Amino acid sequence: MHPDTPSTAPAAADVQTLGAGVTKRTTRLADGRELIYFDDPDTTLGAERAVDARDIDPRPATATMRQDILTGDWVSIAAARQNRAFLPPAELDPLAPQTPTNPSEIPSLYDVAVFENKSPSFGPALAEAVGDLPEASDPPRGLNDLTHLGLGRTRTSVGRCEVVCFSPEREGSFGTQSVTRARTVIEAWADRTAALSALPGVEQVFPFENRGEAIGVTLQHPHGQIYSYPYVTPRTTRLLDSIDRTAPDLFQRILEFEQQGPRVLLRGEHWTAFVPFAARWPIEIHMLPHRHVPDFTALTNEERDELAPIYLRLLRGLDAVYDSPTPYIAAWHQAPVNIGRDTVRLNLQITSPRRAADKLKFLAGSEAAMGAWIGDVPPETAADRLRAAIEGVQL
User: Fold this and answer.
1) Is-catalytic flag, 221?
2) Per-residue DSSP letters for 220-263?
3) What's the whole-number mean pLDDT along residues 360-382?
4) Taking Cα atoms as reference points, which of 253, 280, 276, 248 lies closest to residue 263?
Protein backbone atom coordinates (compact mmCIF):
# COMPACT_ATOMS: atom_id res chain seq x y z
CA MET A 1 0.00 0.00 0.00
CA HIS A 2 1.26 3.47 -0.90
CA PRO A 3 1.34 6.11 1.87
CA ASP A 4 -0.99 8.27 -0.24
CA THR A 5 -3.79 5.70 -0.32
CA PRO A 6 -6.81 6.32 1.95
CA SER A 7 -5.84 6.24 5.60
CA THR A 8 -7.65 5.89 8.85
CA ALA A 9 -6.80 7.67 12.06
CA PRO A 10 -6.36 5.51 15.16
CA ALA A 11 -9.14 5.61 17.71
CA ALA A 12 -8.67 8.12 20.51
CA ALA A 13 -7.75 5.35 22.96
CA ASP A 14 -4.83 4.38 20.67
CA VAL A 15 -3.10 7.77 20.92
CA GLN A 16 -1.02 8.77 23.93
CA THR A 17 1.29 11.67 24.78
CA LEU A 18 4.58 10.59 26.34
CA GLY A 19 7.50 12.50 27.82
CA ALA A 20 9.39 15.15 25.82
CA GLY A 21 6.27 15.76 23.71
CA VAL A 22 6.50 12.40 21.92
CA THR A 23 3.19 11.02 20.62
CA LYS A 24 2.50 7.29 20.59
CA ARG A 25 0.05 5.79 18.08
CA THR A 26 -0.81 2.10 18.26
CA THR A 27 -2.28 -0.01 15.48
CA ARG A 28 -2.08 -3.54 14.00
CA LEU A 29 -0.47 -5.06 10.94
CA ALA A 30 -2.42 -7.28 8.55
CA ASP A 31 -1.56 -10.48 10.45
CA GLY A 32 -2.42 -9.04 13.88
CA ARG A 33 1.06 -8.02 15.02
CA GLU A 34 1.26 -4.78 16.96
CA LEU A 35 2.73 -1.68 15.28
CA ILE A 36 3.47 1.45 17.30
CA TYR A 37 4.42 4.83 15.86
CA PHE A 38 6.37 7.26 18.03
CA ASP A 39 6.17 10.78 16.57
CA ASP A 40 8.89 13.36 17.27
CA PRO A 41 7.76 16.43 19.27
CA ASP A 42 8.46 18.55 16.17
CA THR A 43 7.04 16.02 13.71
CA THR A 44 5.82 17.13 10.31
CA LEU A 45 3.61 14.05 10.01
CA GLY A 46 -0.15 14.22 10.22
CA ALA A 47 -2.28 12.23 12.66
CA GLU A 48 -3.51 9.68 10.12
CA ARG A 49 -1.78 6.38 9.37
CA ALA A 50 -2.34 4.06 6.44
CA VAL A 51 -3.93 0.66 6.99
CA ASP A 52 -1.76 -2.40 6.32
CA ALA A 53 -3.75 -4.06 3.52
CA ARG A 54 -1.23 -6.75 2.58
CA ASP A 55 -2.30 -10.35 2.04
CA ILE A 56 0.44 -12.07 4.05
CA ASP A 57 1.01 -15.52 5.49
CA PRO A 58 -0.05 -16.23 9.08
CA ARG A 59 2.51 -15.82 11.83
CA PRO A 60 4.64 -18.88 12.58
CA ALA A 61 4.01 -20.90 15.71
CA THR A 62 5.95 -19.91 18.82
CA ALA A 63 9.45 -21.43 18.88
CA THR A 64 10.59 -24.09 21.36
CA MET A 65 13.57 -23.80 23.64
CA ARG A 66 15.76 -26.68 24.87
CA GLN A 67 17.88 -26.87 27.99
CA ASP A 68 21.62 -27.49 27.77
CA ILE A 69 22.14 -29.73 30.78
CA LEU A 70 25.89 -28.97 30.86
CA THR A 71 25.29 -25.29 31.64
CA GLY A 72 21.61 -24.98 32.50
CA ASP A 73 21.21 -22.48 29.64
CA TRP A 74 18.08 -22.47 27.51
CA VAL A 75 18.50 -22.42 23.71
CA SER A 76 15.58 -21.22 21.60
CA ILE A 77 15.18 -23.21 18.36
CA ALA A 78 13.51 -20.69 16.06
CA ALA A 79 13.61 -22.22 12.58
CA ALA A 80 11.37 -19.51 11.11
CA ARG A 81 14.27 -17.06 11.42
CA GLN A 82 15.91 -18.78 8.44
CA ASN A 83 13.38 -16.98 6.22
CA ARG A 84 14.19 -13.44 7.37
CA ALA A 85 15.42 -10.85 4.87
CA PHE A 86 19.16 -10.90 4.16
CA LEU A 87 20.77 -7.70 2.83
CA PRO A 88 17.91 -6.88 0.42
CA PRO A 89 18.30 -4.15 -2.21
CA ALA A 90 17.32 -0.66 -1.08
CA GLU A 91 14.12 -0.72 -3.12
CA LEU A 92 12.92 -3.75 -1.13
CA ASP A 93 13.83 -2.51 2.34
CA PRO A 94 11.32 -4.20 4.70
CA LEU A 95 11.71 -1.41 7.28
CA ALA A 96 11.04 1.49 4.91
CA PRO A 97 7.53 2.92 4.51
CA GLN A 98 5.41 0.87 2.10
CA THR A 99 5.23 1.85 -1.59
CA PRO A 100 3.38 0.26 -4.54
CA THR A 101 6.53 -1.76 -5.33
CA ASN A 102 7.73 -2.42 -1.76
CA PRO A 103 5.21 -4.24 0.49
CA SER A 104 7.26 -3.55 3.60
CA GLU A 105 6.34 -3.99 7.25
CA ILE A 106 5.36 -0.36 7.90
CA PRO A 107 2.40 1.10 5.96
CA SER A 108 3.05 4.81 6.60
CA LEU A 109 5.84 7.35 6.66
CA TYR A 110 7.09 7.58 10.27
CA ASP A 111 9.58 9.14 12.66
CA VAL A 112 10.18 6.09 14.89
CA ALA A 113 8.28 2.83 14.49
CA VAL A 114 8.21 -0.35 16.59
CA PHE A 115 6.59 -3.59 15.54
CA GLU A 116 6.52 -7.25 16.50
CA ASN A 117 9.08 -9.34 14.63
CA LYS A 118 7.50 -11.57 11.98
CA SER A 119 9.75 -14.54 12.86
CA PRO A 120 10.74 -14.02 16.51
CA SER A 121 13.14 -16.02 18.63
CA PHE A 122 10.71 -15.65 21.54
CA GLY A 123 6.96 -15.19 21.57
CA PRO A 124 4.27 -14.33 21.43
CA ALA A 125 3.90 -14.21 25.19
CA LEU A 126 1.14 -16.07 26.99
CA ALA A 127 -2.40 -14.90 26.25
CA GLU A 128 -1.18 -12.99 23.18
CA ALA A 129 -2.54 -15.40 20.57
CA VAL A 130 -3.97 -13.49 17.61
CA GLY A 131 -6.15 -15.01 14.90
CA ASP A 132 -5.07 -18.57 14.08
CA LEU A 133 -1.86 -18.40 16.12
CA PRO A 134 -1.96 -21.12 18.81
CA GLU A 135 -1.24 -20.29 22.43
CA ALA A 136 1.99 -21.53 23.99
CA SER A 137 1.63 -25.29 24.45
CA ASP A 138 4.26 -25.84 27.15
CA PRO A 139 5.25 -22.52 28.74
CA PRO A 140 7.79 -22.13 31.55
CA ARG A 141 6.35 -22.61 35.01
CA GLY A 142 8.31 -19.84 36.70
CA LEU A 143 11.99 -19.27 37.44
CA ASN A 144 12.28 -22.31 39.70
CA ASP A 145 11.10 -24.52 36.86
CA LEU A 146 13.70 -23.06 34.50
CA THR A 147 16.62 -23.52 36.90
CA HIS A 148 15.88 -27.22 37.39
CA LEU A 149 18.27 -29.46 35.41
CA GLY A 150 17.19 -32.45 33.38
CA LEU A 151 17.94 -34.28 30.15
CA GLY A 152 15.68 -33.53 27.21
CA ARG A 153 13.82 -30.64 28.88
CA THR A 154 11.87 -28.33 26.56
CA ARG A 155 9.57 -25.34 27.01
CA THR A 156 7.74 -23.04 24.62
CA SER A 157 9.79 -19.89 23.91
CA VAL A 158 7.24 -17.43 25.24
CA GLY A 159 8.20 -13.76 25.20
CA ARG A 160 8.28 -11.15 22.48
CA CYS A 161 10.75 -9.71 19.98
CA GLU A 162 10.27 -6.23 18.54
CA VAL A 163 12.03 -4.23 15.84
CA VAL A 164 12.73 -0.55 16.58
CA CYS A 165 13.15 1.57 13.45
CA PHE A 166 15.08 4.74 14.29
CA SER A 167 14.28 6.48 11.01
CA PRO A 168 12.49 5.93 7.68
CA GLU A 169 15.84 6.51 5.94
CA ARG A 170 17.36 3.39 4.40
CA GLU A 171 20.88 3.78 5.75
CA GLY A 172 22.41 4.88 9.04
CA SER A 173 22.41 3.87 12.70
CA PHE A 174 21.43 5.33 16.05
CA GLY A 175 24.52 7.53 15.95
CA THR A 176 23.45 9.23 12.71
CA GLN A 177 20.18 10.49 14.21
CA SER A 178 19.48 14.00 15.51
CA VAL A 179 19.31 14.73 19.24
CA THR A 180 15.54 15.11 18.94
CA ARG A 181 15.19 11.75 17.20
CA ALA A 182 17.49 10.06 19.73
CA ARG A 183 15.27 11.43 22.50
CA THR A 184 12.20 9.96 20.77
CA VAL A 185 13.86 6.53 20.61
CA ILE A 186 14.73 6.73 24.31
CA GLU A 187 11.08 7.46 25.04
CA ALA A 188 10.12 4.46 22.89
CA TRP A 189 12.57 2.23 24.80
CA ALA A 190 11.02 3.31 28.10
CA ASP A 191 7.48 2.78 26.85
CA ARG A 192 8.24 -0.65 25.42
CA THR A 193 10.16 -1.73 28.53
CA ALA A 194 7.09 -0.99 30.64
CA ALA A 195 4.72 -2.74 28.23
CA LEU A 196 6.87 -5.81 27.68
CA SER A 197 7.68 -6.19 31.38
CA ALA A 198 3.94 -6.44 32.03
CA LEU A 199 3.42 -9.33 29.60
CA PRO A 200 2.77 -12.71 31.22
CA GLY A 201 5.79 -15.00 31.18
CA VAL A 202 8.38 -12.25 30.53
CA GLU A 203 11.31 -12.15 32.99
CA GLN A 204 13.79 -9.74 31.33
CA VAL A 205 13.65 -7.02 28.64
CA PHE A 206 16.72 -6.23 26.53
CA PRO A 207 16.96 -3.30 24.03
CA PHE A 208 19.98 -3.43 21.73
CA GLU A 209 21.42 -2.34 18.38
CA ASN A 210 23.58 -4.47 16.11
CA ARG A 211 25.55 -2.35 13.66
CA GLY A 212 27.62 -3.57 10.69
CA GLU A 213 27.92 -6.71 8.60
CA ALA A 214 30.87 -7.87 10.73
CA ILE A 215 28.37 -8.22 13.59
CA GLY A 216 25.97 -10.18 11.39
CA VAL A 217 23.52 -7.40 10.52
CA THR A 218 21.19 -8.45 7.69
CA LEU A 219 19.50 -5.05 7.10
CA GLN A 220 21.25 -1.72 6.46
CA HIS A 221 18.23 0.26 7.68
CA PRO A 222 18.89 2.14 10.97
CA HIS A 223 17.19 -0.03 13.56
CA GLY A 224 17.56 -1.92 16.80
CA GLN A 225 15.63 -4.67 18.54
CA ILE A 226 14.08 -5.48 21.90
CA TYR A 227 14.07 -9.06 23.18
CA SER A 228 11.74 -10.11 26.00
CA TYR A 229 12.95 -13.35 27.55
CA PRO A 230 11.00 -15.95 29.53
CA TYR A 231 14.01 -16.37 31.82
CA VAL A 232 16.79 -14.33 33.39
CA THR A 233 19.66 -14.42 30.90
CA PRO A 234 22.95 -16.20 31.72
CA ARG A 235 24.88 -12.92 31.74
CA THR A 236 22.50 -11.37 34.26
CA THR A 237 22.47 -14.53 36.38
CA ARG A 238 26.25 -14.26 36.74
CA LEU A 239 25.88 -10.56 37.59
CA LEU A 240 23.37 -11.35 40.34
CA ASP A 241 25.84 -13.87 41.75
CA SER A 242 28.61 -11.24 41.74
CA ILE A 243 26.35 -8.82 43.59
CA ASP A 244 25.55 -11.51 46.17
CA ARG A 245 29.27 -12.18 46.66
CA THR A 246 30.27 -8.50 46.99
CA ALA A 247 27.73 -5.84 47.96
CA PRO A 248 24.22 -4.66 47.05
CA ASP A 249 25.67 -1.31 45.92
CA LEU A 250 28.17 -2.92 43.53
CA PHE A 251 27.25 -0.63 40.63
CA GLN A 252 27.75 2.50 42.73
CA ARG A 253 31.17 1.19 43.75
CA ILE A 254 32.05 0.51 40.09
CA LEU A 255 30.94 4.02 39.12
CA GLU A 256 33.05 5.69 41.82
CA PHE A 257 36.05 3.49 41.01
CA GLU A 258 35.92 4.34 37.30
CA GLN A 259 35.24 8.04 37.86
CA GLN A 260 38.53 8.27 39.77
CA GLY A 261 40.52 6.41 37.11
CA PRO A 262 42.08 7.12 33.69
CA ARG A 263 39.42 5.44 31.53
CA VAL A 264 36.54 7.97 31.74
CA LEU A 265 35.37 9.06 28.28
CA LEU A 266 32.46 11.37 29.08
CA ARG A 267 30.90 12.61 32.30
CA GLY A 268 27.69 14.58 32.55
CA GLU A 269 25.37 15.57 35.35
CA HIS A 270 23.53 12.23 35.21
CA TRP A 271 25.75 9.80 33.22
CA THR A 272 29.36 8.64 33.06
CA ALA A 273 30.87 6.64 30.17
CA PHE A 274 34.14 4.75 30.51
CA VAL A 275 36.25 1.89 29.25
CA PRO A 276 35.92 -0.81 31.94
CA PHE A 277 38.91 -1.95 33.99
CA ALA A 278 38.81 -5.50 32.61
CA ALA A 279 37.60 -4.85 29.05
CA ARG A 280 37.41 -8.01 26.96
CA TRP A 281 36.97 -6.45 23.53
CA PRO A 282 39.39 -4.18 21.61
CA ILE A 283 36.68 -1.51 21.85
CA GLU A 284 34.44 -1.70 24.90
CA ILE A 285 32.49 1.18 26.45
CA HIS A 286 30.24 1.08 29.50
CA MET A 287 27.92 3.85 30.66
CA LEU A 288 26.10 4.16 33.98
CA PRO A 289 23.52 6.59 35.38
CA HIS A 290 24.69 8.35 38.52
CA ARG A 291 21.82 7.05 40.64
CA HIS A 292 20.29 3.61 40.87
CA VAL A 293 17.58 2.94 38.30
CA PRO A 294 16.62 -0.62 37.28
CA ASP A 295 15.53 0.18 33.72
CA PHE A 296 14.51 2.87 31.24
CA THR A 297 11.09 3.33 32.86
CA ALA A 298 12.70 4.69 36.05
CA LEU A 299 14.71 7.44 34.34
CA THR A 300 13.60 11.02 34.95
CA ASN A 301 12.97 13.39 32.06
CA GLU A 302 16.23 15.16 32.91
CA GLU A 303 18.18 11.90 32.76
CA ARG A 304 16.58 11.01 29.42
CA ASP A 305 17.27 14.50 28.07
CA GLU A 306 20.99 14.24 28.87
CA LEU A 307 21.23 10.66 27.62
CA ALA A 308 20.29 11.61 24.04
CA PRO A 309 23.30 13.86 23.28
CA ILE A 310 25.82 11.97 25.43
CA TYR A 311 24.94 8.67 23.74
CA LEU A 312 25.21 10.26 20.29
CA ARG A 313 28.64 11.68 21.17
CA LEU A 314 29.82 8.21 22.22
CA LEU A 315 28.66 6.56 19.00
CA ARG A 316 29.98 9.29 16.75
CA GLY A 317 33.28 9.25 18.59
CA LEU A 318 33.43 5.50 18.07
CA ASP A 319 33.04 6.07 14.33
CA ALA A 320 35.71 8.78 14.37
CA VAL A 321 38.43 6.41 15.61
CA TYR A 322 38.95 5.04 12.09
CA ASP A 323 38.21 6.26 8.57
CA SER A 324 35.19 3.98 8.19
CA PRO A 325 32.24 3.14 10.46
CA THR A 326 32.98 0.67 13.24
CA PRO A 327 30.80 -2.43 13.75
CA TYR A 328 29.42 -2.77 17.26
CA ILE A 329 26.78 -4.20 19.56
CA ALA A 330 25.14 -1.60 21.80
CA ALA A 331 23.50 -3.53 24.63
CA TRP A 332 21.24 -1.92 27.23
CA HIS A 333 21.32 -4.18 30.29
CA GLN A 334 18.25 -3.77 32.50
CA ALA A 335 17.26 -5.40 35.77
CA PRO A 336 15.07 -8.50 35.49
CA VAL A 337 11.34 -7.95 35.82
CA ASN A 338 10.84 -9.81 39.11
CA ILE A 339 14.23 -10.05 40.86
CA GLY A 340 17.27 -7.84 41.46
CA ARG A 341 15.37 -4.58 41.01
CA ASP A 342 17.15 -2.93 43.95
CA THR A 343 20.66 -4.01 42.94
CA VAL A 344 20.94 -4.35 39.14
CA ARG A 345 21.40 -0.90 37.61
CA LEU A 346 20.52 0.04 34.05
CA ASN A 347 23.78 0.15 32.10
CA LEU A 348 24.99 0.40 28.53
CA GLN A 349 27.71 -1.88 27.19
CA ILE A 350 29.07 -1.20 23.69
CA THR A 351 31.44 -3.80 22.28
CA SER A 352 33.25 -4.03 18.96
CA PRO A 353 35.59 -6.70 17.55
CA ARG A 354 37.56 -4.05 15.62
CA ARG A 355 41.16 -4.14 16.89
CA ALA A 356 42.70 -2.08 14.07
CA ALA A 357 41.56 -0.27 10.94
CA ASP A 358 41.68 -3.50 8.92
CA LYS A 359 41.60 -6.19 11.62
CA LEU A 360 38.86 -7.86 13.64
CA LYS A 361 39.07 -9.95 16.80
CA PHE A 362 37.56 -13.39 16.23
CA LEU A 363 36.49 -15.54 19.15
CA ALA A 364 38.52 -18.71 18.70
CA GLY A 365 39.63 -21.52 21.02
CA SER A 366 40.13 -19.85 24.41
CA GLU A 367 37.27 -17.36 24.24
CA ALA A 368 34.68 -19.37 22.30
CA ALA A 369 35.35 -22.81 23.78
CA MET A 370 36.41 -22.01 27.33
CA GLY A 371 35.11 -18.50 27.99
CA ALA A 372 38.65 -17.47 28.94
CA TRP A 373 39.29 -14.08 27.38
CA ILE A 374 42.57 -12.58 26.24
CA GLY A 375 42.54 -8.81 25.67
CA ASP A 376 44.32 -7.45 22.59
CA VAL A 377 44.34 -3.75 23.56
CA PRO A 378 45.08 -2.39 27.08
CA PRO A 379 41.90 -0.65 28.33
CA GLU A 380 43.83 2.55 29.09
CA THR A 381 45.16 2.68 25.52
CA ALA A 382 41.67 2.15 24.14
CA ALA A 383 40.33 4.91 26.40
CA ASP A 384 42.96 7.39 25.21
CA ARG A 385 42.11 6.66 21.58
CA LEU A 386 38.36 6.90 22.12
CA ARG A 387 38.60 10.06 24.21
CA ALA A 388 40.60 11.82 21.51
CA ALA A 389 38.02 10.84 18.90
CA ILE A 390 35.08 11.91 21.06
CA GLU A 391 36.62 15.33 21.72
CA GLY A 392 36.30 16.15 18.03
CA VAL A 393 32.60 15.26 17.82
CA GLN A 394 30.12 18.02 17.12
CA LEU A 395 26.36 17.48 17.48
Assistant:
1) no
2) -SSEEEEEEESS--HHHHHHHHHHHHS-TTHHHHHHHHHHTSTT
3) 93
4) 276
All residues at 6 or more sequence positions from 373 whose CB lies less than 8 Å from its CB, including other chains: 280, 366, 367
Question: Would 331 be classed as within a structural domain?
Answer: yes
- What is the average pLDDT across 355-370? 92
Distance from C-alpha of 32 to C-alpha of 49, rounded to nearest angstrom:
16
Same structural domain for residues 290 and 342? yes
What SS3 class is residue 118? coil
- Are residue 290 and residue 157 in the same domain, yes or no? no
Q: Of these residues, 2, 221, 223, 286, which one is catalytic? A: 223
Task: Please give the Cα distance from 52 to 49 (Å, whole number).
Answer: 9
Domain that holds residue 128: 7-203
Please check the confidence at residue 218 and state whether its pLDDT lies above 90. no
Q: What is the reported pTM?
A: 0.93
Give domain status of residue 322, yes or no.
yes
| Residue range 28-51: mean pLDDT, rounded | 95
Is residue 221 a part of any domain in this protein?
A: no
Give the integer Cα–Cα distance in Å for 48 and 45.
Answer: 8
Domain assignment present for 212: no
70/198 same-domain check: yes
50 and 97 assigned to the same domain: yes
Over 90: is that where the pLDDT of 53 sits? yes
Whether residues 113 and 253 share a domain: the answer is no
Express each pLDDT in 241-280 by its tens digit. 999 999 999 999 999 999 999 999 999 999 999 999 999 9
